[in-house]
Design a protein that fits this description.
- The protein has about 260 residues and is α+β, with helices and mostly antiparallel strands.
- It folds into 2 domains: about 140 residues, 2-Layer Sandwich (Fructose-1,6-Bisphosphatase, Chain A, domain 1); about 100 residues, D-Maltodextrin-Binding Protein, domain 2, CATH 3.40.190.
- Helix content is about 30%, strand content about 30%.
- It is built from 6 helices and 14 strands.
- The strands form 3 sheets. A 7-stranded mixed sheet has the order 3-4-5-6-7-8-9, sandwiched between helices. The chain has a 5-stranded mixed sheet with strand order 11-10-12-14-13.
- A hairpin with a 2-residue loop joins strand 8 and strand 9.
- The protein is globular and about 50 Å long.
- The N and C termini lie far apart (about 45 Å).
- The relative contact order is 0.14.
Length: about 260
Amino acid sequence: MTSLDDDFCVLTDAVRDAGDLAHTFFRSKPKSRRKADGSFVSEGDLASNDLLHKRLMQGRPDYGWLSEETEDSPARLSCERVWMVDPIDGTQAFLNDETDWCVSAALVANGQPVLAAIYNPARREYFSARQGAGATLNGATLQVQDRDTLDGARMLASKGVLTAKKWKQPLSVNLLWANSIAYRICMVAAGRADVTCAFNQKWEWDLAAAVLVAKEAGYTVTGENGQPLTFNNAKPRVQGVIVAPPALHRLLLARKK
């Protein structure tokens, strides 16, 4: 098994190259098709996925692999380390010529992300993190922006999150939006919003890298009911996510039904 130092170098280089490759398809009317679940996949997604698989798995035959654009294999469940990849998170934005998409990849060890890289080439923003070593945006250290009031908080979420059935009392927040859940989490980690949450199921590849970025920046990250998140499950789904500064996270959980 290679060292995490080597894995981090390979990961960060591969994600940057995959993002630059995906960007060559951006705003050029890439071919796309609808998948069985109704979402879209483009030739940019597939090219990014192929590059990441080749680069990340090279010399690492004992590592597992989980990607949105690769058929899942139960072999990953017996692997100590697993690459989790979304070759383009926010494909709908990508196809709509909007810039809120990114390439996201993480290395998960024993159920938790330990390395992460997320690249938005359209905005030239590169997030990375190592477990216990902090998180960065374009090389600058990210630090939690604490907040202890809900009123007026900047929330990155869909309108459905504010429905009354989710909360004991209505939330008075400023609602913002970005198509990619990974990018939304990174925007919170960068202090551009105070909280992001989603109460529908998410795939593990949507969250693994961004969860580590947010945690290493000092944010609290849980499932929608405060449960800890674990990765590399047989069914790789997560039931909701809340990312916020510690005090604000506690307020949200207290307010939630």
